Amino acid sequence: MNEQIPGNDAPAACGFLPRLLLVDDEPRLLSSLYELLRDRDYHLVTATCGKEAVDELNRMQFDLVLLDLRLPDMSGHEIMDYINARGIDCDVIVMSGDVGIEAAIGALKRGAYDYLRKPYSREELLKTVENALQKRRLAVDNQCITQRLENSERMYRYLVDSSPDIIYTLNHEGLFTFINDRAYQLLGYTREELIGRHYSIVVHEEDLERARYVFSGRRLDERASRNVELRLKCNTGNGSAERTFSNTLTAISLNAIGMHALDEEGGRKPAVPGIYGVARDITDRKRAEELISYQAYHDILTDLPNRMLFKDRLGLAVIQAKRKQTELAVMFVDLDRFKLVNDTLGHVKGDELLQQAALRLKECLRKGDTLARQGGDEFTIVLPELRDRADAKGVAEKFLECLQKPFDLDGHVVHISASIGIAVYPKDGETIDELLRHADIAMYQVKALGKNGHSFYHDSMLDVSHQKIALEQALRRALEKDELEMYYQPQIDNVTGRIIGAEGLMRWNHPQRGLLSAGEFLPFAEENGLMLPISDWMLGALCRDLRKWNEAGGDNIRLSLNLSPQYLDRGDFFEKMRGELTRYGISPAQIEVEITENICIRNPHYAIEQLNKLCQLGVSVAIDDFGTGYSSLAYLHRFPIHTIKIDQSFVKEIHDENGHYPVILAIISIARGLGLHLVAEGVETAVQARYLEANGCTTMQGYLYHRPMALTSFIRVLQTQGQTCAPDEPSPLLAIQA
């Protein structure tokens, strides 16, 4: 055995030198053969007997074996049988001096590439070897190409079958010629069920016309492509034709590409023999689009049409009524007392109330009517094809009746009503905006008359609405022109008869209507967002008046400031208060903030936080109109209260000084038990004064003593009566109310 060039087991066709095994038992011939091939780019290995040859074949891979048939230990035929039996991949060129035909036939039968008789010529041997290696190289290259094609096909099939899309081909008749496994995953059809069948078996009946249009060869343009969205039927049945194509639908986006045949000259034939298509499942996207579209036109809380959709439907109803020359009604519904429920029980319960109210209102309507939520607690209704106004009146009465029944909000039973305004087309307006505006005005007219009712729009209501707008504009100008003024009603110590304080009352010096009391414009200011700037003005005016009071000798007087709930809810209230006190040099100990019970229930945690900050600053707190609101007793321990004021509605009930008035007695008892100061409002008779004093309340205010007066008059009364205080006397109390 002789190996001249070391190497590995890689085949020659993969880029390595061809390996040749030279087998001959005659050393001279073997050496001559080696010398003949050594100058070539071959890897040569020699063997002198059959055993060495077999060992070499087992040790490495050879491309070509040059084999002598006569060997001392085994024949060349036996070695070839060994090669074939072991499946060794190599070619064999047999070299033999045997002149018999049987040896050559035996070698060729065993797969020999060629048979050379000794002695052979040098050129014959080299050409035979080169031809054998060339054939082998071509075979190996072809095998590599085939392997790559097979790998590529397997990869392509894997990618196609693993695609999230349905990939298919159709022939010119529209029959499936290929479809991937995704069709089974999405639609439930196997390949066997679709191959050779027409595409129409999977297309929804309503989309067949579009499918014929896009799959038609005549419709394909030069790019041979078209996009279309089709619904495909899912196969969820168990056998029958009707059940195979069930009503379960999947939305599919199809991209069909024409596959053109080539003519003999390489040009494109006009006919389209097949279609390649990709079907992408867009069901989730279509559902999301439908949901987004639905939410854009519907109220999420009540599932009713929103303002945008309502206007669209009202616009269509107006067009139809104009064409048919009929009437229609627009209704504006506002839930009464909803804000109280929302503030008392919280927004979650408020949302539940809106949902229940919406269901009740919807049950009162016909199929063609539209109920929509405008926002908050406001609803709008359009009643098309109205026969007469009695129809709209009947619907409004149904609304009021259904809302009168109690609402159960997880154990909380609440009662509400509604204010309903009605505008009729074409008498009350011919446009959407006119009808809605006039129905809204009619609704506010119902609210002004006590709520819980309905009213048709009338032109006179527009005058009232204009008056409100004019009042709002005038009130804004009153702030700019300093037409507002603080008046003061003295408070009396009934035992000594001395003035010990006063309640501040806001007045408006209206240029046309004269002096207006707070009750004539402050409720309107709260509804129209003017309470905050008015409260800002009041805070500055009080501190300015208090500085004048101090300059007149009343520097020990304490001022009580009655706060609007809106003002307390504003985040910068505390800083505003501290800033005005600093600006006018007022001690916080001179200020007492007066709150109502409604503040206690609107947002108690926030109110407590704000009031505690004021107390830390040095300001005291009083609760006004005690007993007229809700939950006062529950909050007395939580709020930093220093004073209780008895509301005048309880005082007016006192007609006999020897009578029994349990509410008055209970309030006095609560104040005494908690160590709180007590003030009675609205005292107008001596009987009332004597009863209150006899039962423990000595601080009073009312017409029995003084009417409200301007600051200059109040200071003059104090100076006339000598009521300015010495340092060792009790501090008088000045209560200021917005």
Automatic annotation (TrEMBL):
Residue numbers bearing the 4-aspartylphosphate modification: 68
Keyword Endoplasmic reticulum attached: no
Domain PAS: 152-212
An MF annotation (GO) of this entry: catalytic activity
A Pfam family per the record: EAL
Domain Response regulatory, chain residue ranges per copy: 19-133
InterPro entries hit by this protein: Biofilm_reg_signaling, CheY-like_superfamily, EAL_dom, EAL_sf, GGDEF_dom, Nucleotide_cyclase, PAS, PAS-like_dom_sf
Keywords of the record: Phosphoprotein
Any one biological process term the GO annotation gives: regulation of DNA-templated transcription
KW Repeat (keyword) present: no
Name of the protein described by the UniProt record: EAL domain-containing protein
Biological source species: Pseudoduganella plicata
GGDEF domain sequence ranges: 326-459
Domain EAL: start-end pairs: 468-722
